[in-house]
Amino acid sequence: MCGIVGFIGKSPEKVLLDGLKRLEYRGYDSAGIALKNGDDIELFKAKGEIRNLEKIVPDKTSAEIGVGHTRWATHGKPDEINAHPHVSSDKKWAIVHNGIIENYLAIKAKLNAFGYEFYSETDTETVAKLLEYYQKKGYDEITSLNKTVNALKGSYALGIINKNSDCLYFAKNKSPLFLAKSGDEIMLASDIICFKGFAKEYYPLVDGIFGFASKEKIVFYDNLGETEIKPLPLDLGEYDNLNTYKHFMIKEIYDTKTAIKNIIEYYGVKENCDRLADYDLSEITKVKFVGCGTAYHACLLGANMLFEKTGIDATSYVASEFRYGNLSLDNKTMVVLVSQSGETADTLAAFERAKESGAFTVGIVNVEYSTLSKKVDVSFPIKAGVEIAVASTKAFSSQLCVLNIFAGIVARKLFKSVDPLADVRALYEKFDYGNVNDFKLLADVLRYNDKLFMIGRGDDYCVAQEACLKIKETSYINSNTYYAGELKHGFLALIDEQSYVVVFATNKEIFGKTVCNAEEAKARGGKIILFTCFDLDASDADNFYYIIKTKELGNSLQAVLNIIPWQIIAYYISVNKGINPDKPRNLAKSVTVE
């Protein structure tokens, strides 16, 4: 989940800091850079955000090579000691790392026996000391790196410098890592957004690759020896800047309509909408949707869409449960994996399990150069554009749109007479961000609240789960979701005069039942907030503490219109509480470790 960057060229201190700012969505517990300045390696580390590191890094040095890191803590508390880069005992090696070394305790014990001491609580420091161990046995730098990575179990993206070399060393396994070259300058990064404005192509490193780069050349190795990786064109579109918005989160919410337009234009092209043309789906008997967090909530709704359009048995799973669960998987199973980043560790592990069983795999992914996007049998990009804020907004709405199109494509393949884009076009025509002033007023009320509950049925319940997650992520309010029909089975014990209960009721067929369930909470003192797309007469409206309205769409993408207000409300609760919604505590955007 950490961000790493390496650079060979002029003013590496500036390039590394700029790169870390672009990667800060991957972690902001601490940050650091290491510069090879003459015959020494200089370290600069700071707890907290990149701006704290900027205060201690010199404006100009004579260095021409360095590595940098922004951390989401796994092993060891977030402080300067545990911050990367980490160095070997002899100070010859400096290393930055994303991932988890599963056997680091065994390596540490072995090195302890040889007299090595450790200053940090991290797994990464053991890699630096292991490099030193092999080099002291007489091996050169690249052989020491080869022997080191062969000793590691787990996931890693490594950026490494050595004080006696002008090379930038690297290695990758199960964590994203990319390389780019411009003239005689080299950049290494865990996300290609760092290459924006630097290069027009990049090298996508694959698992098991290690090597080195210098001003003169780049050399890649695998366990069979030197190998080749062909560069790919760098296509980031317009890299998102804040422009007139205070935070990425609110900007990205207001990017949603443009994202939906991009989806319509992309899947309106025949070859993009015919991605399943070469596959026989007639034997598929069940479909399993898999995701984490927000992507899992998209899966819940996507399974409903597929069943509604095709009648195929569709179920949803949290990826961390799917990979270990007692599931029936075979070559008649389709597994649909949903991920914004395409690098989510549990989702990738779920993919591996699906492939081992012979299942047909589909990816619903935003980052088209990601591991998941490349590995699945068929990938459907969601075309949301770069999403920086930790709390996903436009990507969730885009996932729902593409899941709807995917369901339509499957239906058309089976039944021939379906327009896969019909629902998304209808959504675009009716799309509305709602009455923001109403949302701000409610956000101001809810910021003081400690007991917030949301209830609903069917798709409304799924959207309520995502709304609760947004509020938890951005404002730290312990909001919880319950099925509207389950209130009497324990939930009502939590209700008192301090409780707010949001009732999602946008399905006309069950509107009355859902509202009646809300009355049970009101009778116990709860303040009832109605969220609906239907008009109420004055006497009915008086029964509610607050009413939020959205438009009625009439298809399963009603969920998009339903979540937008709650994304905005979550944003303003966060801002009202003085919290930065882009960088919630303890969280990071791309969860690349278990």
What labels would you give this structure?
single chain; 594 residues; alpha/beta; Glutamine Phosphoribosylpyrophosphate, subunit 1, domain 1; Rossmann fold; 3 domains; seven-stranded antiparallel sheet; 19 helices; 25 strands; globular
Structural account:
With 594 residues, the protein is α/β, with parallel strands linked by helices. The chain folds into three domains: 231 residues, Glutamine Phosphoribosylpyrophosphate, subunit 1, domain 1; 183 residues, Glucose-6-phosphate isomerase like protein, domain 1 (Rossmann fold), CATH 3.40.50; 141 residues, Rossmann fold. It is 35% helix and 22% strand. The chain has 19 helices and 25 strands. The protein has an eight-stranded antiparallel β-sheet. Strand 5 and strand 6 form a beta hairpin. Helix 15 crosses helix 19. The longest helix is centred in the last third of the chain and has 22 residues. The protein starts with a strand and ends in an 18-residue tail after the last helix. The mean pLDDT is 91.
